[in-house]
Amino acid sequence: MLSTKRKQGSFWQPLFATLGVVGVLYLIAIIVISNFIPGSWEERGTIGDSFGIVNSVFTALAFAAVVVSLWYQRKELQSTLEEVQASERSHSESLRAQEKAIEALKEQTVALYRPYIVARMEIRESAKFSLIIENTGRTAAKKLRLQTDLDFVYPGGFGYKVQSDQGKLSEAYAFNNEIDTFAPGQKLFYHIAIGGYIREEDPDFQNHSPRFTIEAIYSFDGDERTKEVTVIDLRTFYDGFVDELRSDKALENISKHIESIDQTLKSKLAKL
C-alpha cells in the first residue's frame, strides 16, 4: 500500500508542476499586456497578436503536460498490472499449499481409520508356535485374501505326517476363500509349530525354511486393492523362554490352596 501511494505521488507531482509553470507564464503574460503596453485597446490588440507565439508555447506546454500525464498514467497502470499479477501468483501458490494440506489431511485420516492386517507369531503354553492374523485397524477389511509361501501342518510342526486330526495351513478355509468382511479386532489362530521341532538340527526341519511370508490382499475404500506382506522368521525365537500364562499360574495357586485346605481338614478329622 505504501509503494502504491509513492507511485501515485510520483505521477501527480510532475503534472502539477507543469500546470503550475503554464499558469504562472500565462499570468505574467496578462500582467505584461495589461500594465506595460500603452495605448488603446486596439493598439493593445495589435500588439497582443504579436504574442501569438506565446499562445503556441502555452499550447505546446499543455500538450506536453497531457503527454507526460499519459506516460505516467501508463506507467502507473503497468505497475498496477504487475502488482495484480504478483497477487495472482501469490494466491495461486497459497491455493496449491492449501490443496496439499487438504490432501495430506485426507491421507492422515485414511491412515488413522483404515484396516491393517497384521500377521505375527506368539509362543503359547507347551511351546506352541501360534500364527495370529489380526485386523488392528479401525475399519473392516473387505474381500480379504490370504496367501503363504510356506506350508505348515497343524496342529504340530515341520515334517509331521498328516493325520486324520491334522491339516495343512494352505488348506485352511481362510487361505482358500475370499473373506467378505474381516472386522476390526478379528483374529485367526493357527498352531503351526512346536518349539522342539524348529531347530536346524532336527531332521524334519531340513526340508523346510524357518522364514516365510503371509500376504494379505484386501480393499477398504472403493475397489482399490491393498497388499500387505509380513515376513516371519521363526529363528527369532531360538533359545528363548515361554512366558508363563496367567491362567496356568492361577490354576497352580488354586491347586495349592485346595491341597492346603485338604490337609487342614484331614488334620481336624484325625483329632476327632
In brief:
With 272 residues, the chain is of the alpha+beta class. It is built from 4 helices and 9 strands, in the order H-H-H-E-E-E-E-E-E-E-E-E-H.
Describe the fold and architecture.
- With 272 residues, the protein is an alpha+beta fold.
- It has 2 domains: 110 residues; 128 residues, Sandwich (Immunoglobulin-like).
- Helices cover 48% and strands 21% of the residues.
- The chain has 4 helices and 9 strands, in the order αααβββββββββα.
- It has a 4-stranded antiparallel sheet with strand order 6-3-8-9, with no helix packed on it.
- A hairpin with a 3-residue loop joins strand 1 and strand 2.
- Helix 1 packs antiparallel against helix 3.
- It starts with a helix and ends with a helix.
Keywords:
272 residues, alpha+beta, 2 domains, four-stranded antiparallel beta sheet, three-stranded antiparallel beta sheet, rod-shaped
